[in-house]
TrEMBL record, chain A:
E.C. no: 2.1.2.10
The species this protein was found in: Agromyces aurantiacus
SUPFAM superfamilies the UniProt entry points to: Aminomethyltransferase beta-barrel domain (SSF101790), Folate-binding domain (SSF103025)
Top-level taxon of the source organism: Bacteria
Protein name in the entry: Aminomethyltransferase
Automatic annotation (TrEMBL), chain B:
Residues in Lipoyl-binding domain copies: 22-104
Homology family: Belongs to the GcvH family.
Protein name as catalogued: Glycine cleavage system H protein
Species of origin: Agromyces aurantiacus
Domain of life assignment: Bacteria
Function comment: The glycine cleavage system catalyzes the degradation of glycine. The H protein shuttles the methylamine group of glycine from the P protein to the T protein.
Cofactor note: Binds 1 lipoyl cofactor covalently.
Protein encoded by which gene: gcvH
Positions of modified residues (N6-lipoyllysine): K63
Cofactor requirement: (R)-lipoate
Subunit structure: The glycine cleavage system is composed of four proteins: P, T, L and H.
């Protein structure tokens, strides 16, 4: 048996702990190093946690994510220039998935941007990219009347995901809508009416919490941005209210959930050497927006002829294609290598292996039969439209 | 019921139970815990000759793949079909029903004691 943790800890990094660390220990979590943070990888079982989110609800600590505020009269213009999407087009209380591109069109990070006020945006970055995102935003927005504040250390993030998420949130006491005269009933109505990728300013036990109907699991759910010193109370309140319907979930189940939902993961399906269109994210880049934005000319030029594109792969049996495995167009020795797997697992929901891979355009047609070299054995895999799993389908 | 303290261990997180020239091999609870939920196990068939230190099988979880190393030189006399059919046995009962191989050992290499293994894993 080799060391099977699948994770590495860079001894050079300072270990960071979530404000919920004490809670995780009490819940019996196993931890993994994630971008210098010690975060829960699982509490009981990856599969049980995965199924909990699909069937009832799961609770995730995402306090390691970066929250960067862009504030000022020209915040909209600044972000339209700095990011690939047209952020000025979203209204207050709306969120948008966007990309921070390099000049050559490569992806520096994928982000969710919330417009929390007329002149106020919150950019949520991956933990590993937090500093580079903050720095790029500072540089790119410098000519504009807007300021950038990295608030990551002052914001904790809890995600409640799954079909029971709304009901649990409504049943949890202590919530109210921000502003005078709020009560539980107003909150219940407001969260029920909250559309996907919308957020409201709310209160929990007198402190502010941004309640967003967003997530990374393919289920209905909410992401709750809250001050670190209130995170523990909020986590415990959701756990107490939800009882057995709310299962604490680690990052391992989050990865299989997002994979089934066909969502890209930075460092796997997205990176500096990948143009958005290759990863199926051409629509995220607003080429129709007026004015220049960083990466525009490279995006307009498009990827090189024959550049690989992201596809879904499904296979039979139980052996899953894994990141880094080669993809071939045939079984024999004369087969051509046409790509590489970026993420893969035995899908807990579907019961068969699923994977994402970058492959040559001529091999990317849905229904095409390809072969993945799984540690010396070529297993057949069929190109499949993403996502693998769609809720309610 | 064999006590963990009566078993021998490898640095690759396998346990070895010696009974005459037959040894039973499994992975430790430490390894099972680190792997996460085991969903696939590939084991060598009975009759396969194995060499200590070489890869003879695979243990795959939702998250990663672990290689099974032969702890001894010898010949496989039985691989545990119950584990192939129900890989979760590796998690639920790694020292019992989750055993992996029975091997006729040609000779026994130096293996770790329970205390030495515990020192290795820091547990």
């Amino acid at each position: 048996m080799t060391d099977a943790t699948g994770t590495t800890t860079d001894p050079g990094t300072t270990e960071r702990r979530s404000p919920l660390d004490e809670v995780h220990r009490a819940e019996g979590a196993s931890f993994t190093d994630f971008a210098g943070w010690q975060m829960p990888v699982r509490y009981s079982s990856d599969l049980a946690e995965h199924h909990a989110v699909r069937q009832h609800a799961g609770l995730f600590d995402l306090s390691h994510m970066g929250e960067i505020l862009v504030v000022g009269p020209e915040a909209s213009d600044a972000l339209d220039y700095a990011l690939a999407g047209k952020l000025s087009a979203i209204v207050e209380g709306q969120a948008k998935y966007s990309l921070l591109l390099a000049r050559d069109g490569g992806v520096i990070d994928d982000l969710v941007v919330y417009r929390t006020g007329e002149d106020r945006y919150m950019v949520v970055a991956n933990a590993a990219n937090r500093e580079v995102v903050a720095e790029e935003l500072r540089n790119r927005t410098a000519p504009f009347d807007a300021e950038v504040f990295d608030e990551s250390d002052d914001i904790a993030l809890i995600a409640l995901q799954g079909p029971d998420a709304l009901e649990v949130l409504q049943q949890t006491e202590g919530f109210g809508i921000q502003g005078p005269g709020n009560d539980d009933e107003d909150f219940d109505t407001a969260v029920a009416a909250l559309k996907y990728y919308r957020a409201i300013g709310a209160e929990f036990e007198g402190g502010p919490v941004l309640v967003a109907r967003t997530g990374y699991t393919g289920e209905d759910g909410f992401e709750l941005y809250v001050a670190p010193d209130r995170a523990k109370r909020l986590w415990e309140a959701l756990r107490e209210t939800g009882g057995p319907r709310v299962v604490p979930c680690g990052l391992a189940s989050r990865d299989t959930l997002r994979l089934e939902a066909g969502m890209p993961l930075y460092g796997h399906e997205l990176g500096r050497d990948i143009l958005p269109v290759q990863a199926g994210l051409g629509r995220v880049v607003a080429l129709t927006k007026e004015g220049d934005f960083v990466g525009r000319s490279a995006i307009e030029q498009g990827p090189a002829e024959g550049a690989h594109v992201l596809v879904g792969l499904t296979a039979e049996g139980r052996r899953a294609p894994r990141a880094g495995y080669a993809v071939f167009d045939g079984e024999g020795d004369d087969a051509r290598e046409v790509g590489e797997v970026t993420s893969g697992a035995l899908s807990p929901t579907l019961g068969h292996p699923v994977a994402m891979a970058f492959v040559a355009p001529e091999a990317a047609e849905p229904g095409s039969q390809l072969f993945v070299d799984v540690r010396g054995t070529r297993i057949p895999a069929t190109v499949t439209a993403l996502p693998f799993y769609k809720r309610g389908a | 019921m064999t006590e963990k303290t009566d078993l021998k261990y490898t640095a690759e997180h396998e346990w070895v139970k010696v009974d005459g020239d037959t040894v039973t091999v499994g992975i430790t609870d430490y390894a099972a815990e680190k792997l996460g939920d085991v969903v696939y196990v590939d084991l060598p068939a009975a009759g396969t000759a194995i060499t200590a230190g070489t890869v003879v099988g695979e243990i795959e979880s939702t998250k990663s793949v672990g290689e099974l190393f032969a702890p001894v030189d010898g010949e496989v006399v039985e691989s545990n079909q119950a584990v192939v059919d129900s890989p979760e046995l590796v998690n639920s009962d790694p020292f019992g029903e989750g055993w992996l191989l029975k091997v006729t050992a040609a000779s026994l290499p130096t293996l770790l004691s329970h205390d030495e293994y515990r020192a290795l894993t820091g547990e």
